[in-house]
Design goal:
This protein is α/β, with parallel strands linked by helices. It folds into 2 domains: 3-119 and 203-214, Rossmann fold (3-Layer(aba) Sandwich), CATH 3.40.50; 130-195, ACT domain (Alpha-Beta Plaits), CATH 3.30.70. It contains 6 helices and 14 strands. The protein is globular and about 55 Å long. Bound molecules: ribose-5-phosphate. Ribose-5-phosphate (R5P) binds next to helix 2 and helix 4.
Length: 224
């Protein structure tokens, strides 16, 4: 057992028959989907709404019934991963490039739960590079603006050194900040920057974080 798997399996406790479930993205969500698929195969009825092509592919492979976000009016609970979370349960997401669809699904959800391993717990956000999704048109000008602000952006590249392209056909500039002293102010600034589609600061966007340890135990952090 590793921490990610422990948290992924524990998230099953949050699921009830008949629910519409937001399905996050990443290596921790993988374990949740695997466990959910076993329940579905045994006759448990749910509907999933995926946050990425990667998750659609897994759900199809494991025969989890799916709808698109437009096909549902609301989502009962979303189970997603995170790259960092702090004591206020604010977080950074998008290490896997899925931040835009993840934020759309999260905002349509009645309840949001993150599943992570212990390495994701931090006192202050920012050690993990903050993903900023930008339109390809003129992206170098957005990059220059971010350089001038001292935000240290790096264009995300694929293994063969091409720009990484998101499911929505955008690029990602990862901001290497080390610490984010005022996440609200930074989120507000990025929200208003032309050319930026979305950023990976998820503030006040989860009610519960399940943190898995290598020994298989899971600690729960809930919003106060
Ligand atoms: O874009 C990807 C997502 O935000 C992931 O949920 C996040 O990067 C955590 O991924 P993992 O569970 O693989 O560490």
């Amino acid at each position: 057992m590793n921490g990610k798997k422990a948290a992924g399996i524990k998230a099953l406790d949050e699921i009830r028959e008949g629910m519409t479930i937001g399905l996050g993205t990443g290596s921790t969500v993988y374990f949740f989907l695997e466990a959910l698929a076993e329940k579905v195969a045994a006759g448990f009825t749910i509907t999933g709404v995926a946050t990425s092509q990667q998750t659609i592919d897994l759900a199809k492979k494991w025969k989890i019934p799916m709808r698109t976000l437009n096909e549902v009016s609301t989502i009962d609970v979303t189970i997603d991963g995170a790259d960092e979370f702090d004591p206020q349960l604010n977080g950074i997401k998008g290490g896997g490039g899925a931040l835009l669809f993840e934020k759309l699904v999260a905002k349509s959800s009645k309840k949001r739960i993150w599943i992570v391993d212990e390495r994701k717990k931090v006192e202050q956000l920012g050690r993990f590079p903050l993903p900023v999704e930008v339109v390809p048109f003129g992206w170098k000008h957005v990059e220059s603006f971010l350089v001038n602000k001292g935000y240290n952006p790096k264009l995300r590249l694929t293994a063969d050194e091409r720009p990484y392209v998101t499911d929505a056909h955008h690029y990602i500039l990862d901001l290497h900040l080390q610490t984010i002293s005022d996440p609200e102010a930074l989120a507000n600034e990025l929200d208003h920057l032309t050319g930026v589609v979305e950023h990976g600061l998820f503030l006040g966007m989860t009610e519960k974080v399940l943190v898995g340890a290598p020994n298989g135990t899971v600690e729960t952090f809930e919003k106060k």
